[in-house]
Amino acid sequence: MTAIAVTIAGSDSGGGAGVQADLKTFSALGVYGASVITALTAQNTHGVTAIHDVPPAFVAAQMDAVFSDLDVGAVKIGMLSRPDVIEAVAAGLDRHGARNIVLDPVMIAASGDRLLAAEAVDVLRHVLFPRALVVTPNLPEAAALLDAPLARNETGMRGQAERLLALGCHAVLIKGGHAEGAESADFLVEHGAVTRLVADRIATRHTHGTGCTLSSAIAAGLAKGRDLAGAVRDAKAYVTAAIAAADQLQVGSGHGPTHHFHAWW
After folding, report:
1. Could you tell me the residue range of the domain that residue 209 belongs to?
2. Residue tagged active-site, from 210, 213, 240, 258
């Protein structure tokens, strides 16, 4: 049976993040990808110049079209910029009994551009966290979700992940890519279990879309029947290799994308 995953996220016109990165990741990992577009962005390797939100009713229509026909094994949720869009997505998930939901709380682009309206943060926490199998914040996103200072060490990372877990999700994967040091450590925190995942930190400026890529890789693993811990381990290995190969690409003159198809090109 064909493994199918759907991304519910914003479009990146530059192709490095958002829905474009998600679909590339699904394809690279042998999963059929479908999409629900929540916003259009005008962006490239230098940043975001404009955002056009898709009306909530049309987001709902896309979800109904996809879920009524395709046997969706996992859902990746990315950029949801407005409260009414978040509410529409939550209602659609419930309406179709969606499973294996990976929530990437996209708040700020790598360029520093804000992608989530301030008034939407509370809605995201209270409406989507309880529906998520795993939430995948980076350090700035975790701090913003908790209205707390940036975690400065691994003890702080685990503490913030546990606070986010208390908001109702099944698990939290807090990512250490924004930290310093020779290693990049992530923590998968579940109720009663903590898993530390480590990779060597790679010196490259081409990391655009890494968060989108990791969360969609997790969704791909879940769609293929992997358990959460296994899907997370596989996803981290895939993203690490994609970052390591990023300098092979020549895309734009700013912060370029990871190399989603490093194993084939």
Report:
1. 4-248
2. 210
